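Usage

Read records sequentially. Each one opens with the input sequence:
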Amino acid sequence: EVQLVESGGGLVQAGGSLRLSCAASGFTFDDYAIGWFRQAPGKEREGVSCISSSNVRTYYADSVKGRFTISSDNAKNTVYLQMSSMKPEDTAVYYCAAEIMPVGYSGSYLQEYEYDYWGQGTQVTVSS
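and closes with the structure output:
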């Protein structure tokens, strides 16, 4: 059974940093992509970042490029999202998601419909 558990959310001041963790179980990272999404109140869930094991690439939404960094520790089956220079508009529930995306996959990597497995989410609040 695939399970994803997020942690590391909390309250941070604008300009500060947080690191989110996504601990995965029930599968190995080979051929999987792990994505981070967020959903602010009253808004749709949006893709933030993704790391693909198959092609060893990372993807970022324009809104977080240069501020957020995604990484993985395959030995621990854990993916991290380091968030820096945070802004109040980063406030949201952050979810990690997983899906098999083998070499040659030509999708976006940052669309909600591309993922079948989801964690429960962790709240991130950035105060101004």
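Summary fields computed downstream for this record:
- The mean pLDDT is 94.
- The radius of gyration is 14 Å.
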